């Protein structure tokens, strides 16, 4: 037992000498998240590097984000296929969308505090609103290359995106606009969105969206982008229509 402790301490000291201070910090923090010692630190260094516009051949998280997106989609698709054997393709697609949509991935990345692992850059890029979700996908890509598929799936389903967390999303509404579209197609009624720009008193550009049900204007909302304004207006229209039509109840079918 004493000999085992000695060799463990020896290997730890040797590892610390082989890694830079920043890499050792990254490795240590990732072990807390993954429950396993990372093998190729260079992958994770890339996964947490921002794009630097001053370099033509800059290494950053984007390639691993691309890979992680596909790997995550495959793992989640297989999990849903096995978990819901009676569900049709439409239901499986909706569930997958709830799990891998940008808002949920951003939350997962924020909960893991992935921005704390970003590498130091001389010219740091402005962090966009989706950076946490992007880094989450880049982390998945790095894990896949470091440990291969089976272990990557194990880490995702046991550590990062557990079945209990997935179950919480089953009744969550991701897109009110999509929900209204599905309902309108079933009911054979016409829902349309009328969106235009508005200049505010402070000269800021806002978008106002009106939701029409046939010839009746049922809701409107404003926001800083057309997409956000339409989703917000759709949410308000949903609450109005749901009181009369029980849209949510009608949409929960396998």
From TrEMBL:
Protein residues bound to Mg(2+): 65, 134, 137
Alphabetically ordered keywords of this record: Cytoplasm, Endonuclease, Hydrolase, Magnesium, Metal-binding, mRNA processing, Nuclease, RNA-binding, rRNA processing, rRNA-binding, tRNA processing
Gene Ontology CC terms, in alphabetical order: cytoplasm
Name of the top EC class for this enzyme: hydrolase
Role, per record: Digests double-stranded RNA. Involved in the processing of primary rRNA transcript to yield the immediate precursors to the large and small rRNAs (23S and 16S). Processes some mRNAs, and tRNAs when they are encoded in the rRNA operon. Processes pre-crRNA and tracrRNA of type II CRISPR loci if present in the organism.
EC number: 3.1.26.3
GO molecular function, one term: double-stranded RNA binding
Catalytically driven reaction(s): Endonucleolytic cleavage to 5'-phosphomonoester
Pfam families xref list: dsrm, Ribonuclease_3
Protein name (Swiss-Prot/TrEMBL): Ribonuclease 3
UniProt family annotation: Belongs to the ribonuclease III family.
Subcellular localization, as worded in the UniProt entry: Cytoplasm
Keyword Metal-binding: yes
């Amino acid at each position: 037992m004493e000999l085992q402790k000695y060799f463990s301490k020896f290997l730890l000291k040797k590892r610390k000498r082989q890694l830079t201070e920043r890499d050792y910090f990254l490795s240590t923090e990732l072990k807390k998240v993954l429950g396993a010692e990372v093998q190729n630190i260079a992958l994770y260094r890339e996964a947490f590097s921002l794009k630097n516009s001053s370099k033509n051949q800059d290494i950053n998280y984007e390639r691993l984000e691309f890979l992680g997106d596909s790997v995550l989609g495959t793992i989640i698709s297989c999990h849903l296929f096995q978990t819901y054997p009676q569900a049709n393709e439409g239901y499986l697609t909706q569930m997958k969308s709830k799990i891998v949509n940008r808002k949920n991935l951003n939350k997962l990345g924020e909960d893991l505090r992935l921005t704390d692992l970003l590498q130091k850059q001389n010219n740091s890029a402005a962090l966009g609103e989706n950076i946490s979700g992007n880094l989450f996908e880049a982390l998945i890509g790095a894990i896949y290359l470091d440990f291969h598929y089976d272990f990557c799936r194990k880490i995702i389903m046991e550590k990062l995106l557990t079945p209990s967390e997935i179950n919480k999303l089953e009744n969550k509404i991701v897109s009110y606009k999509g929900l209204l579209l599905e309902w309108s197609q079933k009911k054979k009624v016409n829902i349309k969105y009328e969106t235009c720009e508005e200049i505010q008193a402070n000269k800021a550009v806002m978008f106002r969206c009106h939701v029409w049900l046939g010839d009746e204007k049922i809701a409107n909302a404003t926001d800083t982008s057309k997409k956000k304004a339409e989703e917000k207006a759709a949410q308000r229209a949903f609450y109005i229509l749901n009181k009369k039509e029980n849209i949510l109840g009608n949409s929960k079918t396998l």
